[in-house]
Amino acid sequence: MAWFAAPREVGERLREVDYLADEGIVTSVFLAGALGKPLLVEGPAGVGKTQLAKAVAVASGAELVRLQCYEGLDEARALYEWNYKKQLLRIQAEDDAWDDIFSEEFLLERPLLKAIRSDAPTVLLIDEIDKADVEVEGLLLEILSDYQVTIPELGTITAVRRPYVVLTSNATRELSEALKRRCLYLHLGYPTPERERDIVLAQVPGLAGNLAEQLARTVATLRSLELKKSPSIAETIDWGHTLLALGRAELTGDTITETLGVVLKHHSDQARAVKELGLS
Amino acid sequence: MIGRHVGFVAALREAGMPVSLAEGLDAANALMVIDLMDRETLREAYAATLVKRPMHRAGFDVLFDLWFPAVTSGEGPEDQAERAEYDADTPVEDLRSVLQGLLMGNADDPAFREFVRDMVERFGRVEAGPGRQSWFSYSVLRALSPDTLIARMLNQMLSERGGLPEKLARQQISSNIRKFEEAVASEVRRRIAEESGIERIARSAVRPPVDRLDFLRVTKAELAQLRREVYPLARRLASRLTYKHRRGHQGRLDFRRTVRASLSTGGVPLTTHLRPKRPHKPELVILCDASDSVSSFSQFTLLLTFALREQFTKVRAFAFVDTVDEITKYFAPGTDVLDAITQMTNEADITRFGRTNYGNVFTRFSERYGDAVGPKTSLLILGDARSNYQPPALDTLKRLASQARHAYWLNPEPRAQWDTGDSVATGYGAVVPMYECRNITQLAAFIESTDVGG
């Protein structure tokens, strides 16, 4: 199945689910579908990487299968596991059960296997791959290049229908060349003030247009300072919600000082922002 | 199209971007499914398939603009409505007004690009010799000097100056001016490429990506970019070190426990017990050359020191020019990096006569802070080993190095220049292993090959 017919269509359908994509996102998302390659999305925290995968799933009416990576993630949690308890019970119940305890019945499906075997359209989200150990990348290579999984007891399982794979990474470590080579690469950075304003307006209904504009410009200025942690889109949206809850119609210096904690989470960053923006 | 594609891929490789054969094929496949007439889609399709590191993106964009130019001279769209505002005889002052209008608007406006093209046409041409001409962005920027428009624009945009609104407006304007300058530079490159061939300009147009930048040759803007690289680098180093520690968490055989456990299996040592490795708490002592000859390098290393400080339990940092002072206190976690550096340069006692003197520095260091270096310490010296022909105090350094668990010297000069002039690189290198460290890639390689933390 073709996921999307043209880059333009990607943009329109993502917009319908309130995800505002720029040219780069639209083209990469389209190509990942058209070429049947995994899409590796890299960028700072809170710029909508995970959200992109969710939006693609909703926009294309596919099921979302999510694998959250963390340190210590292994095959048994990512791919499949045998249901030992059930196997033991079967052996105890029947003496000649030794042959058929490695069958479908005893297989516990984990996200990767589930995505491969599903015959409905599926978006497989492998989230924060940089948090997982290097070995997991090796495990993924077979799945990402050939869309198949080898289970020693059962043989090789090939995808009935290729899932749409999205990997996200915060770039806390460099991913292996082998993995990068197999993926299309999309770097999600901070948006332009215009796009950020539109995003805030889409995500915070009820916020006045000019306030969103001021928010976006202020956040862009904050990002141009050398901060430890630049504010993310998610934090801009939080800021929008905050202002809405406080009922502020204008982003004045005082309002910024009061609510700066929503966007800047380091004391030194706040001090620096107050100084550079001329607040007090 | 095939020829152009292959040439483009080759140019990317020449500019230092690792594009594999498979990735080239992916890009070619991508060309089959997209609309080739849409230039931005083409650009993003190439970027998605070929550029897998954000820091390579800038170089990629320059090359893409050269190989797939938006228009060629002489056949640009002649839109009368756009041209109405100015023509070839409009005085410069009026052109500046047009520019002012554009800078206050959105830089993605097609009129913006149109204007850049016309201005390069008008001001960018410089006679390079009889019958030859060349193009320069400098002359365009000098004629229009967008920076001097800022005050006028601010007056027009704001009812009153000062405070937050001015900051925001300034930010918008300066970002647009930067875009204008970039657009001019890219248009000039395109003109040159048209006249003397893409390959020639391509080679000189692309700055190396951040991780290959020479520390001693960075521009101011690039230094800011380098600074942004430091945090991820330090975090990556720290995570690498913890990874290493976890890997080797089991130490030597615990004989007693193994024998004890073998009793339950009839004396056969089926399960072995290993002693848990004692966690080594690395201590880092950094001696950093802060003289002018290595100023951008030392700025960078100070930042790295600062970043490492948050990752390691014990870091002590010292800076020197011709005498040495401890600078650890300026880099307490939670302080602002840039402030810390300014404060350090103002307050720390590191200069007597302003000329680097390594010999004196090592002597003073071992007198005043000799106890900082112990058997658990890794000693890291950062500097160019240029001592202005002063006595090098090799013995003192030898003693310091033998006290420490490890000692390393990172030298930001290319290896070929070591021992030239007043450099005592080999002399010091014989005492403390010296590594060439000219860019982030080399720095990362150094950390990986040696075990600074463990």
Automatic annotation (TrEMBL), chain A:
What protein name does the entry list? Answer: AAA+ ATPase domain-containing protein
Q: Name one Pfam family in it.
A: AAA_5
Tell me which residues make up the AAA+ ATPase domain.
35-194
- Give the record's family classification: Belongs to the CbbQ/NirQ/NorQ/GpvN family.
Database matches in InterPro entries:
AAA+_ATPase, ATPase_dyneun-rel_AAA, CbbQ/NirQ/NorQ/GpvN, ClpA/B, P-loop_NTPase
Q: Determine the domain of life of the protein's source.
A: Bacteria
Q: Mention one GO molecular function.
A: ATP hydrolysis activity
TrEMBL record, chain B:
Protein origin, superkingdom: Bacteria
Q: Which Pfam families match?
A: VWA_CoxE
What name goes with this protein? Answer: VWA domain-containing protein
What taxonomic lineage is listed for the species of origin? Bacteria, Bacillati, Actinomycetota, Actinomycetes, Streptosporangiales
